[in-house]
Amino acid sequence: MLGVDAAQVKRWASLFKEYLGPGANPVKGKARSFSDGDILVLSYVSYYWENDPDMEAIRIGLNREHHFEDAFIQNLNLHTPLLQEPPDDLDETWRHGILLAYGARYQYLELARSYRIIAESLLRSALEEDDLAGRAYPILFAYRHTLELYLKLIGEIAENTHSLEKCVEMAEKRHGKDFPSHIREWILELDKIDPNGTTFRYADENPKYLRNAEYWFDFVQFQFAMKLMFDGIDKAILDLNMTGRPVKT
To answer: Following DSSP, what letter does each residue of 145-199 receive, concatenated?
Structure first.
């Protein structure tokens, strides 16, 4: 990463130890380790190191925190894996990432609501910035995925299906009650143009329903319809939970 051998790194760690964490100069027998901050320091040292280095100038730069300049941060990011070991000092103050762990982050209904927030945000910004043409498919995909997740939650559906029509039928059967007719019709319309959840995911998908016809799709009306739909389903799920009925998480 720094273009030098281990012996040089060890030398720098000793010369500039006051700028490094304890892991950079461990006790004998313990493996040497470097934090992200250490790497920035060493990157800065490496950049300004010469055959006859100006040690004072390098220390002045470090004291002024010049090692936090974009070039050194970019070099650190370039050599950082996406999946990292959790830092030892990780706590609630770390706001620029999340701790990925199976089943440990989202509570019941929280993930569906998160997808809904993203879908609504995408549509709102596209309408405000007059850029529906460039963002329509990602918006439709986000809403369609959110709807599928909501339906599977309210229907307590474990079956591996992406069919909105089937999800509606199973949810209605599960609770012995039909969706309001207008909401059911909107869901089935989305299912016709995207029966497998792939129409808006891939550019070359072309469902049979769209092959011989054209339709005007009003995103302002769509925004209204989706809000009405999600609010209703959201309330129904919460009502089921309040009755004490067991739900899958």
So the answer is: HHHHHHHHHHTT--S----HHHHHHHHHHHHT-PPPHHHHHHHHHHHHH-TTS-T
Our measurement of the distance from residue 67's CA atom to the centroid of its chain's CA atoms, rounded to an integer in Å, reads 29
The domain locations on the chain are: 6-78, 110-242
Give the type of residue at 41.
Answer: V
Q: Which of 20, 43, 50 lies closest to 32 in space, CA to CA?
A: 20
pTM of the model: 0.74
196: CB partners within 8 A, 6+ apart: 162, 163
pLDDT tens string 65-84? 999 999 999 999 999 988 88
pLDDT in tens, 14-30: 999 999 999 999 999 99
Rounded CA-CA distance 131/225 in Å is 20
Query: What are residue 195's phi and psi, to 5 degrees?
Result: -70, -25
Q: How far apart are CA 19 and CA 227, in angstroms?
A: 53
CA 20 to CA 38: how far, in whole Å? 5
